[in-house]
Amino acid sequence: MTLIFYLASIIAVIATAMVITRSNAVHALLYMIVSLLSLALIFFTLGAPFVAALEVIIYAGAIVVLFVFVIMMLNLGAETTARERQWLEPRAWRGPAILAAVLFVELLVLVLGEPAQLGSSAVVGVKRVGVALYGPYVLGVELAAMLLLAGLVGAFHLGRPLAPDDQREAS
Amino acid sequence: MAAVPMEHGLVLAVVLFGMGLTGVLVRRNIIFVLLSLEIMLNAAALAFVVAGAHWGQVDGQVMFFFILAMAAAEVAVGLALVVRIYYRFNTLDVDALSEMRG
Q: Which of A8, A27, A54, A96 gives A38 a disulfide partner, CB atoms 3.0 to 4.6 angstroms apart?
């Protein structure tokens, strides 16, 4: 368990360093996914399975997809096909693949290892978190819901088609 | 489980936060600035979870939930702004946006 924590920490630091030094946004996003997955593994070893699942589902699943979607929207052009072929070169995904393979081996060790490791008393389970969220923190959950609604309305408002006078101003 | 000292988890959070801060300060592409902001938020959330796990309390995970909701709302609005900026200025350079008008 301890070894897995330190190994995942090293992977997280390496992947994060690669994120902020890449010049290609898609390469950076690949490393960002690896960094988020290693952080999910760290949360799991810390005894927070609910947070680990949220990290994979919402960060690596939803937020990174938003980034990918915006990058795709901004790259409409004639050179897109050539750039796509360039992105699929093995050099582009070799680093993230190696880091992700190490994470996968750690996951296998965790899953196939002794169940006693997982059933430790230090695990703060999903049930306790849910009871706390809808007990003393229910006001915060409602505020988070309103914040997300405001984010939805704001993104919709900003993403709407340009009005005619706006277009004239832009051109 | 308890073999991992809390300090090491906090050191990891500090290192990740510092990397995110460096990215915000150094990068000029606005998409990378947003990515670095996500890294910083994630590092702060990691600090909460490490502290919550150390004392066996749920509050750390609850705070992670709130940070997650805030990050999701922030990235939705931020990326909508990025699309808007790109269509108006045809660049993603934050230095090109230094002159506010109208």
A: A8
Q: Which two tokens stand for residue A20?
A: 């902020």
Q: Are B13 and B40 in contact (CB under 8 A)?
A: no
pLDDT along chain A (171 residues), means of 10: 87 92 85 92 88 91 89 69 68 82 85 61 79 91 94 89 59 47
Residue numbers in A near B101 (CB within 8 A): none
B30-66 pLDDT, tens digit each: 889 999 999 999 999 999 999 998 888 889 899 999 9
DSSP string, A42-90: HHHHTT-HHHHHHIIIIIIIIIHHHHHHHHHHHT-STTHHHHHHHHTSH
Rounded-to-integer distance, Cα B2 and Cα A162, Å: 56
Chain-chain contact of A154 with B38 (C-beta, under 8 angstroms): no
User: Could you tell me the pTM of the whole model?
Assistant: 0.84
